[in-house]
Amino acid sequence: MAEEELPGVLTVDVGGTHGLLANLAALLKRHFRLITLGEFLENRKELGERIQSVFVFERRPSVDRGLLESLPNLKVIGNCGVGVDHLDLSLISGFGVKVTNTPRAVSDPTADIGMALMLASARRLVEGNAL
Questions:
Q1: In terms of CATH architecture, what is 8-100?
Q2: Residue ranges of the D-isomer specific 2-hydroxyacid dehydrogenase catalytic domain (predicted)?
Q3: CA distance 26 to 11
Q4: In what order do the strands lie in the sheet with 8-11?
């Protein structure tokens, strides 16, 4: 399928300190035409019609009434991470948009860090390192 025929997905910039990870961008590009927030802000009218999904990465882009009103064909907001407490679900559902997230995406890394912190505390590693 040509890129022009793919549904658009709005997301943050790719790369950099706070941008979308390259492997996630590659995955999205297989199924969507990737539209960064910067591109969208430069051409809201044309690109707003094409966007059917928003991919929220590290709580960005911020989903508010203004954004929802500028995306008439929006169908789903996908949040990369656990929880959706930073999204106004009642506002979003009022626009007929579904919200998804990745509930178990960071379960293993969270458990690993928790164990590492408990072991570091029990063995007083931080104090030893400072000495």
A1: 3-Layer(aba) Sandwich (3.40)
A2: 49-113
A3: 13
A4: 33-36, 8-11, 51-57, 76-80, 98-101
